[in-house]
Design brief:
alpha/beta; two-stranded antiparallel sheet; 15 strands
Length: 403
């Protein structure tokens, strides 16, 4: 039996190559017309800074309908503008439109001067200082905190250590129970030599971590997406959407060696958070101290933080007001998917509005404070010089006032 040898229609091949060449030429022209890839464009003001940390307050067109401000805490390993990647796919803009008063932390880019920053510095130092700043600025006894990915783990730890400062806790695609072996990230992390990494690099380069994340889905993230890009080369807006995501993926800050050492050893390898054995500074973290309302959101198809790492959290906290929310999608889709814009942001807003105290009192601003709030900002704010981090809790940063 003879095997038929497939034949090629030269006219079809020629036409296909001609079309591909046309797309590549058009795409090159489109790329040359793009001067800047705009991300994180929702208007915001820098209100506080400490070392490399920056705290921003998003501007609102009207009064917030939710009377408790929300602090967004993003992961250390990526940039927070994923929540405001582009105007039509922005969790930030969506929450603002639903009446939420938003603040967000930008952790910055660590350098060798930050190699000894620990989880204690980030949580009992920087994060606590930001919370206290917002409480003072808004004259609130408590604020809401919304943690994303690793930032959700940090937010849960913070809420357990300082429950008197947190009104409601919202976590999105955050890992808590590290005992699972679902997903390559959790398998790999259990066998990494955290001491060797921190000792060799001092600050782990973002490119090394990013290469690891890309290898979790090597074909999809390294090959297929660039093949798919050929279909959008002629469309400027779709190409910009692709480039915005690429910028975020490869904009990876380095990681302070001491912090990532403890996070790997105590969480991924020791699973001390759920065991009640995690110690941050001189404080032992007891998740039962989380007595404020909890909204815990996980993604059903998450390849970075599998549901098995997130769902057990609700059984470990001390509150009776706890909601476990399943989002049908992946880790990134939670932030930029069209479904998340229609479903997730409104759900978070509704949950927060239902748990605000209608009669919650705040100190009324003085006449001088009202006048200061009406004064427009002029010029660039003064920046505090960076200082060598000390072991333990950080010193207070600089409040940036309108002048």
């Amino acid at each position: 039996m003879k095997t038929e040898i497939p034949t090629l229609d030269l006219n079809t091949v020629t036409a296909g190559l001609s079309e591909l060449t046309r797309k590549l030429v058009k795409g090159a022209e489109t790329l040359m017309e793009i001067d800047e890839i705009d991300v994180g464009t929702a208007p915001k003001d820098l209100v506080y800074e400490e070392d490399k940390l920056r705290l921003y307050h998003y501007r609102r067109e009207g009064e917030a309908s939710c009377n408790v401000p929300v602090l967004i805490v993003y992961a250390l390993v990526n940039r927070q503008y994923m929540l405001d990647l582009q105007p039509d796919r922005s969790i930030v803009r969506n929450l603002l439109q639903h009446g939420i008063d938003l603040y967000i932390i930008d952790w910055g880019y660590p350098t060798k001067a930050d190699m000894y920053l620990s989880m204690d510095d980030y949580i009992n130092g920087y994060l606590d200082n930001c919370v206290d700043f917002i409480r003072k600025k808004t004259k609130s006894d408590k604020i809401n905190i919304m943690g994303i990915c690793q930032g959700g783990t940090f937010s849960a730890i913070y809420s357990a250590l300082y429950p008197e400062k947190i009104k409601n806790l919202v976590t999105l695609v955050a890992p808590f129970d590290f005992s699972t072996n679902d997903g390559l990230l959790f398998c790999w992390s259990k066998h990494m030599n955290a001491d060797a990494m921190a000792g060799a690099y001092r600050v782990i380069p973002g490119d090394i971590l990013n290469a690891g994340f890309l290898m979790l889905m090597p074909f999809t993230l390294n090959i297929r997406k660039y093949v798919d890009m050929l279909h959008v080369l002629e469309d400027r807006e779709k190409l910009l959407n692709f480039l915005r995501m690429e910028q975020w993926i490869f904009d990876s800050p380095g990681q302070a060696g001491e912090c990532i050492r403890q996070f790997l050893r105590d969480c991924y390898q020791g699973n001390k958070l759920v065991k009640g054995e995690l110690k941050v500074g001189d404080k032992v973290v007891n998740l039962k101290n989380i007595t404020m309302p909890l909204l815990n959101i996980y993604a059903s198809a998450d390849h970075l933080v599998p549901p098995a790492a997130t769902k057990p959290f609700n059984d470990l906290v001390g509150t009776s007001d706890k909601t476990l929310y399943e989002f049908k999608g992946g880790h990134i889709g939670v932030f930029v998917g069209s479904k998340s814009q229609k479903e997730l942001a409104p759900a978070i807003s509704d949950w927060l509005h239902k748990r605000q105290d209608k009669g919650e009192s705040k100190q009324k601003p003085t006449a001088a404070e009202k006048a200061e709030a009406r004064t427009p900002s002029a010029g660039s704010p003064m920046r505090m010089p960076e200082t060598k981090p000390q072991q333990g809790k950080q010193g207070k940063g600089k409040e940036l006032k309108k002048r």
